[in-house]
Amino acid sequence: MEDKEILLKAFEFHGHICWASAIGVRAGLTALRKLGVRRTGSSGELHCIVEIGENHGAQCFIDGVQYTTGCTLGKGNISKSGWGKLAITLIDKKKERAVRVSYKPGRHKMVAESSFMKKRGMGIPPTQIAPEEAWEMVNMLWDAPESEVLTVGDIISYDWGDDFGEIMGLKACDSCGEMVSKVYLRVVGDKSMCIPCSGYGR
Prior knowledge:
The chain has 202 residues and is an alpha+beta fold. It has two domains: 3-157, CATH 3.30.1330.20; 167-202. Helix content is 35%, strand content 19%. It has helices spanning 3-14, 19-35, 61-69, 108-112, 115-121, 131-142, 146-149, 195-198, and strands at 46-50, 78-80, 87-92, 97-103, 150-152, 156-157, 170-172, 179-181, 186-188, 191-193. The strands form three sheets. Strands 1, 2, 3, 4, 5 and 6 form a six-stranded mixed beta sheet that branches. A two-stranded antiparallel sheet has the order 7-8. Strands 9-10 form a two-stranded antiparallel ribbon. Strand 1 (46-50), helix 3 and strand 2 (78-80) form a beta-alpha-beta unit. The chain is globular. The termini are far apart.
């Protein structure tokens, strides 16, 4: 699949066109190429640490990363450090190597001054802004030389340690009857309950 096709599919996955998911795609593609690995379809090959936090602009970055690398919440092979940065560390678990890629400020002033971002600043949702304006902003980063928009670290050793894999099995809660992973059951008297029914904290 060509890079531009990956970008288009990432926007479809994300739900709208935006610069942050585009730079997430570029960061993911760059990290894959640097490590010499392909997009993963399982949880046993790659793990990605994304440095975004909570409730800040540009969190769309993580969707670009997820789509591109195959490291997803559903597979449990992506985690957040919560530092509020647009950066990733992609880990090749089998070879125990990693690379960090981060967004550079080189062209961000142009992005911030785009008509798209001015409208976002007025509270207009991204889905209500003309695609032409969104693409104008995206292309500022997509068409830029990698050295202007990304900082790419050296490949480093990364001790992944033991990987015990996923714990299989679901069971119905004895109180509400909903299915819950066995790992999350709590024993209350002679019953096995989900956390909300049990009254326990996590």
